[in-house]
TrEMBL record:
CDD domains: Mrp_NBP35. Transmembrane segments: none annotated. Pfam families: FeS_assembly_P (PF01883), ParA (PF10609). This is Iron-sulfur cluster carrier protein. It comes from the Bacteria. Belongs to the Mrp/NBP35 ATP-binding proteins family. In the N-terminal section; belongs to the MIP18 family. Keywords: ATP-binding, Hydrolase, Iron, Iron-sulfur, Metal-binding, Nucleotide-binding. Binds and transfers iron-sulfur (Fe-S) clusters to target apoproteins. Can hydrolyze ATP. It comes from Paracoccus onubensis. Gene3D superfamilies: P-loop containing nucleotide triphosphate hydrolases. GO terms for molecular function: 4 iron, 4 sulfur cluster binding; ATP binding; ATP hydrolysis activity; ATP-dependent FeS chaperone activity; metal ion binding. Residues 6-75 form the MIP18 family-like domain. Homodimer. ATP binds at residues 123-130.
Length: 360
């Protein structure tokens, strides 16, 4: 049995905001939907500061609704429109309203000129998803492919650092965004479009709007493949991407540890539900080879991801070693896949598999 819309509104409209008004008087509730016991709505606030002030209100609304017998889940999305950036005289920084609400779109769309879109996900943070994305992009570019890299890791965009790009991308006409270029790869990061801390209140519709703009308003040009570095986990960015773009498939990065694998399983499940085929699993931080004595150690276990791939009937695409140079390369903006060591060779093999499989 579904809870009544009026009951939901009645339950929350009397909650007091810090300024003294009630939630009902302030008229902040948007897009209320009720499906069975699942209540969802948007709280549209003025700006990030107001969103922070209303965190208690959000909690109180959730608490009150969860206390209703027919309600078993409450999702509240707090959004605040990002201020429009004024373009400096003579053009320059984009005046796009990154983080605005999405525009209507009929299902996932291809990106003109882009042949394949590959999402790179992980269940857990810190498993090396961004590192794998930047190195794979470079390895594919070295293999002669036209490669784009979109850093959609809104909570910790690291591609500017890892690829060594800085500066705000230009938008001469205020409409299209010109991406940056590094190591033969066309790069765009959500981090290059934000002021520090701006993304903290983004959820739901605003993330959807930001993703739509990054996919459709960036001049990606002709690409064999666009790699998309996702935030860890299973959230709104993944959902937005799969709803907005015709994703070729997803690669899942995991360490061999069980805990990472457990989380990776959740990510795999999510992509399946979003109808994005999982193209394969990659094991990062597999083997550590001591640079002094050549001894191989498996700090995070070994072979777990290959076994998991087998069990799930998914391709296992390769193992990437744990190596100090990988981190140093990531920190200095020069991915190690540009060199010729064992890790670069592992990335070249991974790139080769994707090219031969028609995915890149
Ligand atoms: N194979 C590796 N060898 C050595 N260091 C690595 C390796 N892979 C990743 N790292 C290091 O581990 C840290 C985390 O990597 P990275 O930022 O790529 O992870 P992530 O999964 O994208 O994390 P986040 O959750 O922040 O998105 C970085 O300092 C990176 O340089």
């Amino acid at each position: 049995m579904s809870v009544d819309r009026e009951v939901v509104l009645g339950e929350i409209s009397e909650i007091r905001l810090p300024g003294g008004e009630t939630l009902g008087q302030a008229d902040l509730v948007r897009a209320l939907t009720i499906e069975g016991g699942h209540v969802r709505f948007v709280l549209e606030v003025r700006d990030a500061a107001m969103a922070r002030e209303l965190a208690g209100v959000e909690d109180e609304a959730r608490r009150r609704l969860m206390a209703l017998p027919a309600v078993d889940r409450v999702d509240i999305v707090m959004t605040a429109p990002a201020p429009r950036q004024a373009a400096p005289a003579g053009g320059g920084a984009p005046s796009l309203k990154i983080g605005g609400h999405p525009t209507a779109q009929a299902g996932p769309q291809p990106i003109p000129g882009v042949r394949n879109i590959i999402a790179i996900g992980s269940g857990k943070g810190g498993v090396g998803k961004s590192t794998v994305t930047s190195n794979l992009a470079v390895a594919l570019a070295r293999a002669g492919r036209k490669v784009g890299l979109l850093d959609a890791d809104i909570y910790g965009p690291s591609q500017p650092r890892m690829m060594g790009v800085t500066g705000r991308p230009a938008s001469p006409d205020g409409q299209r965004i010109e991406p940056l270029h590094a190591h033969g790869v066309t790069v765009m990061s959500i981090g290059l479009m934000l002021k520090e801390g701006e993304a903290v209140v983004w959820r739901g519709p605003m993330l959807m709007g930001a993703m739509q703009q990054l996919l459709q308003q960036v001049n990606w040009g002709e690409l064999d493949v666009l790699l998309i570095d996702l935030p860890p986990g299973t959230g709104d960015v993944q959902l937005s991407l799969c709803q907005k773009a015709a994703v070729t498939g997803a690669l899942i990065v995991s360490t061999p540890q069980d805990i990472a694998l457990l989380d990776a399983r959740r990510a795999i499940d999510m992509f399946r539900k979003l109808k994005a085929p999982v193209l394969g699993l990659i094991e990062n931080m597999s083997t550590y080879v001591c640079p002094n004595c050549g001894h191989e150690a498996h700090l995070f276990g070994h072979g777990g991801v290959a076994a998991e791939a087998k069990e799930l009937g998914l391709p296992f695409l390769g193992q990437l070693p744990l190596e100090l140079d990988v981190r140093l390369g990531g920190d200095s903006g020069r991915p190690v896949a540009l060199d010729d060591g064992p890790t670069a060779r592992a990335y070249a093999q991974l790139a080769d598999r994707l090219v031969k499989g028609g995915m890149a």
